[in-house]
Amino acid sequence: MRFATLAAVAASLFSAASAVQYNVTVGPNNTNTYDPSSITGVVAGDVISFRFVSKSHSVTQSTFDQPCVARAGGVDSGFFPVDAAATSFPEWTIQIENASAPLWFFCARAPHCTAAGMVFAINPTAERTFQAFQATATGGAAGNTGTTTTGTNTTTTGTDGGAADPATTDSGALSLSAHKLTTMLVGIALVAGFSL
């Protein structure tokens, strides 16, 4: 029993260690944008870290058809206000549970989504493009705006700003912070019968 539990813990740790971390800047240069505005190649277990650098923004999960409406049961960072003179910036991190379909996000601070098209996509497809998603958000035609990246493996870790994170297994994204990960690993160790 202990060996099976230890093997499961080791497999979980290996999976977390091999995950790719993508970094997204929220509000770069005092704009209502995400940089990059979309990322591709994300797989289950990968981590997306959002760094809030200006104004007051959120990362709120939506759907392709309703870009500026919070998805029921989706993840939501809550708002992260950033002072103009700030020298340190809050981060919010999610771990992707299911990357089999694109994931869609927006800034819930009105009118950032509808007026500026402040939206973000994970794994948009040829049929459901980032440009079409953004155009739907602003009520306009699909243009060629935004940047896409495939990201690189980094060692930066995000922190949870204490914002709401109503993650569900069907949202495709799981909110995860360093504190929550530590708590989860300690719990697994205790269940496995290890003394701490």
Automatic annotation (TrEMBL):
Query: What does the organism's lineage look like at the top?
Result: Eukaryota, Fungi, Dikarya, Basidiomycota, Agaricomycotina
Highest taxon of the source? Eukaryota
Keyword tRNA processing set for record:
no
Q: Where is the signal peptide?
A: 1-19
The record's keywords, sorted A to Z, are:
Signal
**Protein name, entry field:** Phytocyanin domain-containing protein
Location of region: Disordered? 141-166
**This protein's record includes keyword Signal:** yes
Under the heading InterPro entries, the entry gives: Cupredoxin (IPR008972), Ser-rich/MCO-related (IPR052953)
Organism whose genome encodes this protein: Cyclocybe aegerita (Black poplar mushroom)
Q: State the PANTHER family in the record.
A: EXTRACELLULAR SERINE-RICH PROTEIN, SERINE-RICH PROTEIN, PUTATIVE-RELATED-RELATED
